[in-house]
């Protein structure tokens, strides 16, 4: 999840204006080699010896064997808002680069992601993607990015603390809190039985604000609205948003079920949970990747559905995308899609199978949990999804009941809500401050805090949006 907690920046506000400064890019140089083969550069590469490089080189070798008309060159640049604008405006983006759902709308609007529609159609992708997900990268009926992974936030829990608190069935299935109020009751039970805080909620590094949006949606809150004249309006100064913040405040001052820490960024959040200092946390399906560094083992980890709110049952959807630079030639776009599909494919090709098994084996060797099934980017009928899920079942290294409720949840999810599409990171920072205030001050006025936050978001950010 850390990749989603990027530094606050106003860079995306300048993307549209930066188009006029675009220079020579991949479409003007390094298009073919001396043998006439199409050259594509792939971002996120590593030249550091190790398992990650070995996997990339194996993938490159297999790809070039199967596609002798293409040469793959590694580019060590990895997407970040701090560097994206300069790379994009200078025409220096790799042919293929990773990005995320938070930024993709602005990237598409600014013209830095190539139209993949025709190539995808020619290669049989029509109807193969999960429609809820492909809609997020579609503009005017055209597809501008290739979704490769998606997640829905759930509720992570410590199996040992759940068992000690009487919240674990004999078969290892956890009791599921139906709503946020029942989660509080579970947290109180954990605290009473074990002396450990029953729940942890982040407050810093944009993590708290990010999770607060998901909580607030379940209260019926929406944070922004685009007006007919193209301007954006902050819309969260509402009684429902105040109620959601009051729920956060009560965790500490009324129920006493959270740690005493008031500055909890992403690292601290996972450290607290991993070291047994909290019983539950809001988490994505891959959260074990972040807790194993602190020594937590798969058998201690569980995951289930996110609780309902007073207004609706909703969760945040996010994930990773592969974009192709808009400077690319048609031949490079075609080659880029062929490269992407060696790892992410609706077909269960031999290469896809080998790549998928390698990735799962790496998780096992790293000590991560294998057993959680993600929200699929594919339609239910896609054979690759069926293959991957069967492989997860085969290589599962836990009692499957630890994550069964989450797996069932993503198969039949509640409402899936994408992240705020404009100034998301700036909003999260403002909401972080709201959470910090109510955790630090027992007398904090939630209504006043939300009013100020909404006004600040409008004046400091939304009033300056140019797209």
UniProtKB/TrEMBL annotation:
<protein>
    <submittedName>
        <fullName>Extracellular solute-binding protein</fullName>
    </submittedName>
</protein>
<feature type="signal peptide">
    <location>
        <begin position="1"/>
        <end position="22"/>
    </location>
</feature>
<dbReference type="Pfam" id="PF01547">
    <property type="entry name" value="SBP_bac_1"/>
</dbReference>
<dbReference type="InterPro" id="IPR050490">
    <property type="entry name" value="Bact_solute-bd_prot1"/>
</dbReference>
<keyword id="KW-0732">Signal</keyword>
<dbReference type="InterPro" id="IPR006059">
    <property type="entry name" value="SBP"/>
</dbReference>
